[in-house]
Amino acid sequence: MKTHPISLVLCVLALGAASCSKEAPSAGEAAPEQAQAKAVHAPADVKPGSHEDWCGEHEVPESQCTRCNPDLVPAFKATGDWCAEHGLPESQCLKCNPDLKIVRPPKGS
Which residue ranges does the record annotate as region Disordered (predicted)? Predict the structure, then answer.
């Protein structure tokens, strides 16, 4: 089967045109996305172990989230709490420990 270069170019252009929206998002559409992005991670000054200390993206305490803060990895490895297969603390590895429950502390804690 011989592929025609012009066919490939036309396919790429058609796909690009279909996925490209010329309309800029309105302020009302962008605001919820920005608010959600801000709500995913805890502020830097929260008390570790509190309700506010939560990484919504990875569903673990923000102060212990090695995926958001790779500088924490050596501490987990030093204590033997590391899943090399999945690249995160064993105490957070739901693939190795499917019954593991990581619960966000209640408000006011």
Answer: 24-53
